[in-house]
C-alpha cells in the first residue's frame, strides 16, 4: 500500500503526467491511498481559495454597482463552501482512495500537538502539527491493521517526518514493531523508481489496444461522465443542420446522452512496466458527435477533443479516459460525417433512452 501525505498530492495535482502514472500503478493492483485527514486538508485548501475569490468577486460587484447609474443585471450566486468541499473530496478520493483517520489517531494527534511531540512540534508562534500527526498515525495504524502488507508512506515534509533513516521519539516507537513493512519515501520520483520501469513499446500495439471492440462506445460514455462531473464552464462546438451542410456554433456543456466517438490519432505515448503488466499513457485526438437535444431543436452537435488515456496493454478492455484536455469545433467539411455519427449515437441508445428522447419532443429518429 502506498499512502500519500498532503504535500506530494498537492504538488502532483490531478491532471499531471505524474498523476496519470499513479493511476496506472493503482489500476495494476497496487494499493494507492491517502488518509482521511489528507483529503480533508486538500479539500479545505480549495475551500479557502474559493472563499477568498468569492469575497473578492462580491466586493468587485458592489464597487461596480456603486458607480453604475442604472440597475445591474449580474448577480453573484450565494457562497457555497460545502458544495466546493464535497466536490474536491470526491475528486481526491476517486484519485487515490481513502483510508480512515480513526478517532484514536485524532486523539493521539491532539495529545502530541499539545505536548509538542513529533511529528507535531512546539515553535515560537505556538504548538502546531496536529494534522501532520494525524496523517502519520493513520499510516501507522493501517500498517498495524494489515500485517500482510508493506506500507510506503510518501511525504516530502522531511522537516516533520524525517527522511526515513532515523525517527524521533515517539515516532520510532510507532514503527518499531513494523520493521521492514513500513518505509518512508520522500518524493514521487522514489515511488516511480520503486514501482515502475519505463519501457519501449510499438505505437501500433498501443493503437490496437485503444481500438479494441467496443472501446469507442465506452470512450463516449466516459467522456459524457467526465463532462457531467466537470466544473468547467463548457466549450465551443459545431452545430450542423440535419444534412450537415450548414454549420453554426454552440456553447456545449454536455450531450444529453453519451456521444458517438471516433478516435482519429494517438500521440504522446509512454509505457511502463508495473509488476508483471505493461501500462501505457497516451493522448487520443477524438471526434465526438450527438443529437442536439434542446427543446424544439434539430441538428448535430460535434467537436474535436484531446483525451488523455490510460491503457492496459495486456487487458482486452477499453482504455480509461482520464480527462478532457482540450476541445473545440469541427471544420465545416466535417458536417456530413458528424451527422452520420449522430445517427450512430441514436442507434446505440437503450430502449429507455430512446423513449426519453422521443416523448418530450415527439421527434422522428434518424434512420
| SSE series | EHHEHHEHEEHEHHEHEHHEEEEEEEHH
> Could you list the spans in which at least 5 consecutive residues all have pLDDT below 50?
360-367
Our Rg estimate from Cα atoms comes to 25 Å
Please tell me the overall pLDDT: 91
Q: With helices defined by DSSP (H or I, 4 residues minimum), what is the helix count?
A: 13
- By secondary-structure content and strand pairing, the structural class works out as alpha/beta
Strand content: 15-25%
Number of strands: 15
| Biggest pleated sheet | 8 strands, antiparallel
**What share of the residues lie within helices?**
40-55%
Shape designation: flat
Distance between the amino and carboxyl termini: 52 Å
Name the descriptors.
single chain; 367 residues; alpha/beta; 8-stranded antiparallel beta sheet; 13 helices; 23% strand; disordered C terminus
Offer a concise description of the structure:
The protein is α/β, with parallel strands linked by helices. The protein is built from 13 helices and 15 strands.
Describe this structure in words.
The model is unreliable at 360-367 (pLDDT under 50). The longest helix has 31 residues, at 36-66. Helices cover 43% and strands 23% of the residues. The chain has helices spanning 6-12, 17-27, 36-66, 81-96, 103-115, 130-145, 158-161, 171-175, 188-195, 203-210, 215-229, 335-347, 351-361; strands at residues 2-4, 32-35, 98-99, 121-123, 126-128, 151-154, 182-185, 197-199, 235-240, 247-252, 260-274, 277-291, 300-312, 320-321, 326-328. α3 runs antiparallel to α4 (81-96) and α5 crosses α6 (130-145). With 367 residues, the chain is an alpha/beta fold. The strands form 3 sheets. Strands 8, 9, 10, 11, 12, 13, 14 and 15 form an 8-stranded antiparallel beta sheet that branches. The protein has a 5-stranded parallel beta sheet with strand order 3-2-1-6-7. A two-stranded antiparallel sheet has the order 4-5.
